[in-house]
TrEMBL record:
Gene Ontology terms for molecular function: flavin adenine dinucleotide binding
PANTHER family recorded: HEMOLYSIN-RELATED, UPF0053 PROTEIN SLL0260
Originating species: Desulfovibrio ferrophilus
Pfam annotation, one family: CBS
InterPro entries: CBS_dom (IPR000644), CBS_dom_sf (IPR046342), FAD-bd_PCMH-like_sf (IPR036318), FAD-bd_PCMH_sub2 (IPR016169), Ion_transp-like_CBS (IPR044751), Transptr-assoc_dom (IPR005170)
Keywords, sorted A to Z: CBS domain, Repeat
Annotated Gene Ontology cellular component terms: plasma membrane
Protein name, as recorded: CBS domain containing protein
Domain named CBS: residues: 60-122, 125-182
Length: 276
């Protein structure tokens, strides 16, 4: 049964998305200009609005990248695959990837290992998959994850074949950006000094770290990260290839998407020497 907070949530979001988003977006931008919202708050709110305009197929892991196993594989093989890929759930198929018949959860596997008892097959411990069309609206997907209390869905194409896989984390990342856990592959260093002396920096690098390491003095009252800093400078999310100048530095956007700046290069700019 839906509790009160669930129905309030659906009503609020239902009303919000029946409105003209462009009006809300203008309202958010003008609140930013008036200083009522910080850059980070603006990007969160705009990302929430964009959820209602996106389809699952734009954010899912495509079929070819799904770590899955055949139902006739023994539990040992499924466990090894789970450990190798570091995921906590693995879809199980019969015959081929177009026919997903279950999901094995690492916690169920652990329970099985700890409790022992009769040897079980993969089919014995798998759960029923949640199927959704890959055209499903991402905001609706979030609601389904909440109400069904399942955090992974298999997206189907128009012919009923497997199109991809989506989890609650994929939806939340659309709002807050990358979320990583202990098992995610390590990423390249956030700050790298290149051979020519330029600094390659990931957008999520905190401004204070740059200041501590290079005394760059890129500061802001509103934002904490380098990505936030250039967004604030531009008044929007900049495009790849754009260049901005600050006192003594040139910031070149190396990689960005419509929501955030992923990588940028910081170059020191020679200041004209003062006359003696
Ligand atoms: P986990 O922590 O088990 O990897 P999350 O739900 O936190 O699962 O998802 C993290 C990312 O990994 C998401 O992009 C999700 O789509 C992807 N993912 C989760 N399970 C699988 C899987 N079996 N095969 C491929 N990608 C997966």
């Amino acid at each position: 049964m839906e509790d009160e907070s669930d129905s309030l949530f659906s009503t609020l979001f239902g009303k919000l998305f029946k409105r003209d988003d462009s009006v809300l977006e203008k309202f958010i931008h003008s609140a930013k200009r008036d200083g009522d919202l910080t850059g980070d708050e603006v990007s969160l709110l705009l990302n929430v609005l964009r959820l209602g305009r996106k389809q699952v197929r734009e954010i899912m892991i495509p079929r070819t990248d799904i770590a899955c196993e055949a139902v006739d594989e023994p539990l040992q093989a499924v466990a090894e695959h789970l450990m190798k890929r570091g995921h906590s759930r693995i879809p199980i198929y019969q015959d081929n990837r177009d026919n997903i018949v279950g999901i094995v959860h690492a916690k169920d596997m652990l329970r099985h290992c700890m409790l022992g008892g009769d040897p079980k097959s993969t089919a014995d411990i798998m759960r029923k998959p949640l199927f959704i069309p890959d055209t499903k609206n991402v905001m609706d997907m979030l609601q389904v994850f909440r109400t069904r209390k399942i955090h992974m869905a298999i997206a189907l194409d128009e012919y009923g074949g497997t199109s991809g896989l989506v989890t609650l984390e994929d939806v939340l990342e659309e709002i807050v950006g990358d979320i990583e856990d202990e098992y995610d592959a390590p990423r390249p260093d956030d700050i790298q000094v290149l051979e020519n002396g330029d600094i390659l920096v990931s957008g999520r690098t905190p401004l204070f770290e740059l200041d501590e390491q290079f005394n760059l003095q890129l500061t802001s009252e509103q934002v904490d990260t380098v990505s936030g800093f250039v967004c604030e400078l531009a008044g929007r999310v900049p495009y790849s290839g754009e260049t901005f100048s600050t006192d003594g530095h040139r910031l070149i956007i190396k990689e960005a998407d419509p929501k955030q700046v992923h990588w940028l290069i910081i170059q020191a700019v020679e200041r004209p020497k003062a006359d003696d």
